[in-house]
Each structure stands twice: as structure tokens, then as C-alpha cells.
Specification:
about 325 residues; ComplexI_NDUFA9_subunit; three-stranded mixed β-sheet; alpha/beta; 16 strands
């Protein structure tokens, strides 16, 4: 008598087919679970005998869990032993962060590394100046999206995350917030990258005539491109004011002191201010700020959850971050 165990790691075509000897059903009642860690999927492997668990623990996979029954360690592997079949699909993630050395981009890179995700950053400044050992685990590529060698940047990518955006003249904002992102979306789509995540902006309930500035029209143009090219996997996050410790020319600006205080005040007064939310432009004062760490964790949720796609508001960003944090 033996056991058959089959397990699928979500989202991959890689398989493990293994047979484990068991002397009898009565001697194989213990249950164990473990999570193999790594970053790159391998082709089909054949594992035999008591080496299964040692080898599975070295399998590259960044999000997976196996449960299986196994026999006592003292059992011998012989021709009369029954077998357990293991079939596992392995999925790994490799993300490309556009603007990865910036304020939001660095937070995303750091969060991705902490979750075992392979990270490539493309930005004009190259390597991030943020401290921490996580910086050494990111592949930093200097470059401009308008002139990037996408065959080199996107190889193996499972998602592209764009933090591109900026303030300037109308022409500059249209180019940075809109055209640069459109170029990136089309490059990712042509290369076959399955997911695109865009950091956009909340509209602050502004009157329509104020939303015609290059900043907002550029962002909305980028959003449209993401949602049209990736209707079932594109993600648009619309945070408001993003706070955290921001580094500028080597100096750290503690925006978190302002953001955390504002967030607490707005939460405490929500019942009183909610009736005002319908007033044009009211969100300039009433839209709650978002921690840069919450934005980063919401991005990780988007990377790992295939059911997470579409446009997400400030509150939905916080909810997505809470799922990953838990």
C-alpha cells in the first residue's frame, strides 16, 4: 500500500515528479509542511528515496508550500516499497522597476527583495543611494526608457513596475508622465511580459479644467495604455500624498513625520469631514496620505496575486498592503 501526493505551485509550468518509498499505510501517517525558497525555476527533476526532502528544500521557488505524508526515516528503500508521486509546478518572480532608484522605486525594490523576488531596476541615475544590504541584491541598470535595450532589461521578467513621473513644464510632464510610460507598456507587451503595474495619482476630486494639466493628462494617458494592453493583468495604483523618509542629495527628509500625523488626524475626524468630500477639490485637504511602504507592499500584492488587477484607490492600496504585511 502506498500514497500518491500531488501538489502544484501556482502559476508555473515547471514540474517535479518523484517517488518516495513507504513500507505501509499504517507507518506513514505523519504530516509535514515546508516552504522551499529561491528565485529561478528549473526543468523537470526526478528525485528518489529519502533524498526528496533535502532536494526539495533546495528547489528554487519564492512562493510555495508542500504538504505530504512520509514514512519513518528508518525505513529502507527496497523494491517492495510503495511509492509517493509528487508533482509540483514552480513559479518564481522577476520584476523590472522603472525608476527603481527613486523614492517610491527604492521602497518597491526593498520590499520585493524582502519577499525573495528577483529585482532589476532601470533608471537614469543607476544605483540607489539608500543604505541597507538589500541594495546589493538588486541589479541596477542605468538608462532611459526612450533609449533602453529592452531585450536586455526585460529578459525573464514576470512584471514591469513603473514609478515614472515628475513635475515640470507642460511638455516635460506630458513626456515623463505619459509618453515614457506608454513606451514602457508597449515594450513590455511586445516582449511578452505578463503584467504591468503603474504608480499613478489620485485626482483629488479636482474640477475638470484643473485636470487638463500635463501632469494629470500624462498620467491618465499612461493608465489608458496599461488597461488597454493589459485588460486582465494591468494594475493602476492611485495614491495621494506619499510619505516616508526621502533622500535628496544625500540628505534624508522625514516626510513620515508630516504624513503620519496628517493620516492620524484625518482618520480621527473622518466622521466630521466625510460630508465635505463631495466638494470640488476637497481631497486636496481630506485625501489621506499613504505610506511609501504601503505603496510598495500593494505593488508586491499585485505582483503575486493574479486576481489583483484594475484601478485601485487610496483605501484599496492600504487594504492590499495589509494583506501582504499579514
Amino acid at each position: 500500500m502506498g500514497f500518491i501526493l500531488r501538489h502544484s505551485f501556482p502559476g508555473s509550468s515547471g514540474e517535479i515528479d518523484s517517488r518516495i518509498p513507504c513500507a505501509s499505510a499504517s507507518k506513514a501517517r505523519r504530516m509535514t509542511s515546508f516552504s522551499p525558497l529561491s528565485a529561478i525555476a528549473r526543468p523537470t527533476l526526478a528525485l528518489r528515496g529519502d533524498s526528496l526532502f533535502g532536494r526539495l528544500s533546495s528547489l528554487p521557488c519564492n512562493r510555495s508550500k508542500i504538504k505530504c505524508n512520509y514514512a519513518d526515516a528508518t525505513l529502507k528503500d527496497d523494491s517492495k516499497s510503495a511509492t509517493i508521486d509528487v508533482v509540483a509546478n514552480i513559479r518564481t518572480e522577476r520584476v523590472v522597476v522603472l525608476g527603481g532608484s527613486g523614492f517610491v522605486g527604492s521602497a518597491i525594490c526593498k520590499a520585493a527583495v524582502s519577499k525573495g523576488i528577483e529585482v532589476v531596476s532601470l533608471s537614469r541615475s543607476g544605483r540607489s543611494t539608500h543604505p541597507g544590504s538589500w541594495v546589493d541584491q538588486v541589479t541596477w541598470m542605468p538608462g532611459d526608457v526612450f533609449y533602453a535595450n529592452w531585450d536586455e532589461v526585460l529578459v525573464g521578467a514576470t512584471a514591469v513596475i513603473s514609478t515614472l513621473g515628475g513635475i515640470g513644464s507642460e511638455e516635460q510632464m506630458q513626456r515623463i508622465n505619459g509618453e515614457a510610460n506608454v513606451v514602457a507598456v508597449n515594450a513590455a507587451k511586445d516582449f511578452g511580459v505578463p503584467k504591468f503595474i503603474l504608480i499613478s495619482v489620485h485626482d483629488y476630486n479636482l474640477p475638470t479644467f484643473l485636470l487638463t494639466s500635463g501632469y494629470f493628462t500624462g498620467k491618465r494617458k499612461a493608465e489608458s495604455e496599461v488597461l488597454s494592453k493589459y485588460p486582465n493583468s494591468g494594475v493602476v495604483l492611485r495614491p495621494g500624498f506619499i510619505y516616508g523618509k526621502r533622500r535628496v542629495d544625500g540628505f534624508e527628509i522625514p516626510l513620515d513625520l508630516i504624513g503620519e500625523l496628517a493620516e492620524r488626524i484625518l482618520r480621527a475626524t473622518e466622521n466630521f469631514t466625510k460630508p465635505l468630500s463631495s466638494l470640488p477639490g476637497s481631497d486636496l485637504l481630506l485625501a489621506p496620505p499613504v505610506s511609501v511602504d504601503d505603496v510598495a507592499l500593494a505593488v508586491i500584492n499585485a505582483v503575486t496575486d493574479d486576481d489583483f488587477f484594475g484601478i485601485f484607490t487610496i483605501e484599496q492600496i492600504k487594504e492590499a498592503a495589509a494583506k501582504v504585511r499579514v
